[in-house]
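Give me C-alpha cells for this 436-residue protein.
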Amino acid sequence: MIQALEIMNYTLLLIFGTVVSILFAGYEKTPKNQRAIALLIIGILSIQLTSYYSLGLALTAKLYPLITHLPNVLFIEFYLKKPRSIAIVSMLVAFLCCQPPNWLGEALQLIWNGKVTFHIGYSLGLLMMFYLIQRFVVSSVHQVMSYSSRSLAVFGSFPLIYYVFDYTTTIYTGFLYSGAKVIVEFFPSVISMFYIVFIIIYNSEMQRRCRLEMDNLMLQTRSESATHEIMALQQVQRQTAIYRHDMRHHLSLIHNFLEAGDSQEAMTYIQQTQREIDKIVPQRYCENNTVNSIFSAFANKAKQKKVEIMIEAIVPKQLPIPDTEICTLLANGLDNAISAAASSRKSGGKALIPRVRATCHIHKNNLLILVENTLGGKVEMRDGLPYTRKEGHGYGVKSIQMLVDRHQGYYSFSAEEGLFTLQIVLPLGESDGGPI
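Here you go.
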C-alpha cells in the first residue's frame, strides 16, 4: 500500500514540477505542444527508473538535477524557444512550489500518525497546489519575469538560493538535520534580505512602467493632435481651392469697377480680397501638400511671435510614410524651435535676432530634416536628448525619438555657440508599424 502511494506521489510530483515550470515559462496550448510535454514527462520518468534500478535511490537522488531539471530547462529553451534565463527561473520557481504539499503531508502525519496519512496529504497537496498555481499564480509570475532582466534576476535569486540550500543540506549532506545553529539562522536571514531587495527593485520597476505608460498616453495624445492638425490644414487647402474657383468672380467685379471709372473702389476691393487670401492660402514650398501646409502654418506662427524663419523644402508629392508621421517630425521640431527662438531675444545682456531655419528634402531614399534656432541660454542634455524639468514638456522630443527609432533612422540634438540643431534621417522603406 505504502509503496504504491510512493510511486503515485513520485509520478504526480514529476508531472507537477514539469507542467508548472512550463506554465511559468509560457507556451501555446496546441495538441502538438501537449504531446511534446507528455513525451518529455515519459522520457524523464524512463531515465529516472533506469537510474533507480541501476544506481540505487541515493545516487539517483543526487543525480536528480541532471536527469530531471536539466531536461526540463532544455525543453523550455530549445523546444518552446524561451530565453535561457526564463527557462532556469521557471524551473527554480516550480521547484519551490513543490514544497508546500510536503508541509501538508507532514502536518497530517502529526495529527494522524502514519505513512499512509502523509502520502494521502501529499497527493492532495499537489492537486490543490496545482489548481491554485494555474488559477491565481501563473499570470503574475509570468508578468514579473517579463518586466526586465533585473527583475527576473531578483525574482529568481531566492528560488536559486533555496534550490542550492536544499540539495546541499539534505541530498548531498545531512547538515540540515544536524541542528547546527548556522543553519537555523541562515535561511530566515536570507528570506528577510531577499524580501527587502525584491520590494525595492519591484517598486523601481513599477515606477518605471508607470512612467512609460504615462509617456505612451502623452504620445498618443500628440498623435491625435497631429491628426487634427492635418485635418485643419486640409480644410485650409479646400478653402484655398474654393477661393481659386471664385477668383473669376472677383476679377469680374474688379473689371466692372474699372469700367465704371471707380479705380479707388477697385483698389479697396483688391486689398480686401488679398488680406482674406493671405489668411488661408499656404505658401508653396514643394510639391507635397502636407509638408507645405505644415511649413505654412508654422511660418505664420513664427510671424506672430516675431521670429524670422527660413524654409527650404524639396519633397515629392507622395511619400511612403503616413502624413501623421511627417506632421509629428516637422510640427514638434518647428514648434520647439520657434518657442525657443522667441525666448532667446536676450543672451548675456545682448539683444539677439530670433531666427529659425528649416530644411526638408530627400536624399538616397531618406527623408532629411534639419531645424536650427537661435539659443539664448543653456540647454541641459541627458543621453543626447534635451531635458526639461517643466511638467508636461519634453514629449515632442520623445515623439521624434520613438518614431525615428522605429524606422531605424538617425536623430541628433545639439546645442552650441548660441544655436540649437535638430537633425533627422528617416529611411523611406516600409514601416513595421502604424503612426505614432
